[in-house]
Amino acid sequence: MNLVQHTGIMYKNGSISEIDDAIVCEDTFTLHLNDKPLLTMVASDDHLRELGAGFIICSGIADRIDSVTVIDDNIYVEAPVTGEYMATLESSGGYANQAEPPEVHFGSRITPGKVLEVRGAIDSDAWLKTGALHASVLFYKGELAVRCEDIGRHNSVDKVVGHAILNNLPLSDCVIGCTGRQPSGMVQKAAYAGIPIIVSRAASTDQGIRTAEKTGITLICFTREGRFTVYTHPERIIGLEQYGKVK
Questions:
Q1: Candidates 3.40.30.120, 3.40.140.10, 1.10.10.10, 3.90.1150.10; correct CATH number of 112-243?
Q2: SS3 at position 165
Q3: What is the pTM of this model?
Q4: Average pLDDT, consecutive stretches of 10 residues, N- to C-terminus, the chain (247 residues)
Q5: Which residues are CB-contacts of 59 (< 8 A; sequence separation ≥ 6)?
Q6: Which fold has domain 27-97?
Q7: What is d(CA 16, CA 241) in angstroms, rounded to the nearest whole number?
């Protein structure tokens, strides 16, 4: 993660002091699919292979990745196109697919304690230091597999999904944790990837909840110390099975 130091003047309770802050860098990358430019994205400069692979999977463009190569500020992905991609800029600042996402099968179950563990794993040193990053984590079979940060919450999700794709982790056995709000476009990413459970530190929107309900995803938001709110498909949470039913 590329950080720079920048001076500033802090005012705090009537006191003024000079400070030296860690500032996140933003970079621009062009994503190519099968040797054709697909789009240009603003992102942080780490986990770029994962970003390319995850974006293609989370957008429903392909269901497998053949290769990913990064050269300078270009990400080259080779993948068999299996779905129609109709890009729209959504509220997270990322691109979402206008096409209908698929339903997610039952997949993993989770205890309330594990929900809180996923939430706790989201906080990274870089996020705490800068306050300018979003972070996502991927748990596989109950254990932390990867944590990725980015200036875009959508990119951080693509990166952890890309990690699973490049390391052959079955996504139906995964749980994703995010710092960011969950509008429809963010929930769609999990649906296209086939991840059954989302744990977010933040809120959802009505369309995010509607998308999670329709696609069969367990959407957990407002995860804090000792509490969380489940909006859809609570039957995947052990002890809450009576409140829901998988389609």
A1: 3.40.140.10
A2: helix
A3: 0.89
A4: 84 89 89 95 95 96 96 97 69 61 86 96 79 90 95 95 97 94 94 96 95 96 94 94 68
A5: 85, 87, 95, 96, 97, 189, 192
A6: Ubiquitin-like (UB roll) (3.10.20)
A7: 54
